Amino acid sequence: MQAKVRWNGKLGFVGISGTNHAVVMDVSKENGGDGAAASPMEMVLLGLAGCSGIDVALIVKKKRLNVRDFEIFVHGERADEHPQVFTKVDMTFVFEGEDLSRKALEDAVRLSLDKYCSVAGMVNKTAEIGWTVEIKE
Fold this sequence. Notes:
Layout lengths: L2 E5 L5 E5 L4 E4 L14 H23 L4 E12 L7 E12 L4 H15 L1 H6 L4 E9 L1
Parallel strand pairs: 5-6
Antiparallel strand pairs: 1-2, 2-3, 4-5
């Protein structure tokens, strides 16, 4: 797996994945950037949610749960000292569907975060990852 980033001359970068997909990164205006895109640390949170989301989608499909839609909300707290890693991450998985089993959904999330999600495996080296499941009726 490989990737590259190209500097925009300010504090932003365009990343190109090894599979030739582009992503833009920047920092907020308060931190000297243009605020034109997600920061690299926001990308970590997005990567965590996306990685876990893929696992959960596969698991609920395999369990034949009638999930119509779901969202994952992620909030990260960072250390005060550099390198300012994440120290705590809270995730809320909100599911919508018919006759959903809370236990089955919680089992899917637990499997993802404890076993399958590679990003969670890295993030949990510095951060406690907490999570909850909500079901919209």
